[in-house]
Amino acid sequence: MSEASVAVHADPDLLAQAVAARLVVRLLDAQAERGQASVVLTGGRIAAAVYRAVAALPARDAVDWSRVDVWWGDERFLPSGDPERNETQARAALLDAVPLDPARVHPMPASDGPAGHDPEEAAARYAAELARSARPGTAALPHFDVLMLGVGEDGHVASVFPEHPVSYESRPVSAVRGSPKPPPVRVTLTLPAINTAEEVWLVAGGADKARAVGMALAGAGPVQLPAAGVQGTGRTLWLLDRAAAADVPARFRSLR
Ligand SMILES: O=C(O)[C@H](O)[C@@H](O)[C@H](O)[C@H](O)COP(=O)(O)O
């Protein structure tokens, strides 16, 4: 497990640009090392800005997109193509613009898909799809080179919400009902699954995130503040704009 580190950028736009540049480099490095790369996407405003910034980067063409696996950390359980789905947002902002292998793009099931209107069944199907991509006999999950997370004002990550039963869940994928952030029904990777990623990046911009970010870095409990329970196996990186970094504890400030 890795110690957290913090990088701060002047404003949300520069934050998105910097995360986009890091993401391209991370995918290139993974492909240089392993011949392929895998990324876990998230939803929300800052994630969409990052995806648009990657699409606009000339260096994105240096990535062999046909050898990138794309997974999602969480999804809003809505019909396929719904504009509120994290998948729809990511496709519009980035995925439709790069030559991915459709077989390597792994959206979470939609509410009008083969799982029917049953988020538990959708979670089970996604867990099975992850397990099929895992190295035989080793694990229930494939290797994730980088897993990106937005951070909610309440400290949620993916769709793991504070004090919600999902924050105690040990299976890798869980249905979520009664989400405090709309829509109420979701599917999410759980903290134990998120924490198998080699690098986890928590991306947050804006003053309304400062409290949650500060408390997570100060060592809050993972049930009270799921962002505090996130740790990549190789690296845990908080990527913030100045406003979101306002309450970062002093011991991380010296690292900037
Ligand atoms: O489905 C979602 O809404 C997300 O995956 C969620 O975890 C999001 O990343 C955070 O709520 C931050 O979202 P913002 O960047 O929009 O604040």
UniProtKB/TrEMBL annotation:
Occurrences of domain Glucosamine/galactosamine-6-phosphate isomerase (ranges): 11-238
GO molecular function, one term: 6-phosphogluconolactonase activity
Reactions the enzyme catalyzes: 6-phospho-D-glucono-1,5-lactone + H2O = 6-phospho-D-gluconate + H(+)
Annotated keywords: Hydrolase
Superkingdom: Bacteria
Pathway named in the protein's UniProt entry: Carbohydrate degradation; pentose phosphate pathway; D-ribulose 5-phosphate from D-glucose 6-phosphate (oxidative stage): step 2/3
Matches recorded under InterPro entries: 6-phosphogluconolactonase_DevB, 6PGL, Glc/Gal-6P_isomerase, NagB/RpiA_transferase-like
Pfam families named among the record's database cross-references: Glucosamine_iso
EC number: 3.1.1.31
Protein name: 6-phosphogluconolactonase
Organism: Micromonospora thermarum
Higher taxonomy: Bacteria, Bacillati, Actinomycetota, Actinomycetes, Micromonosporales
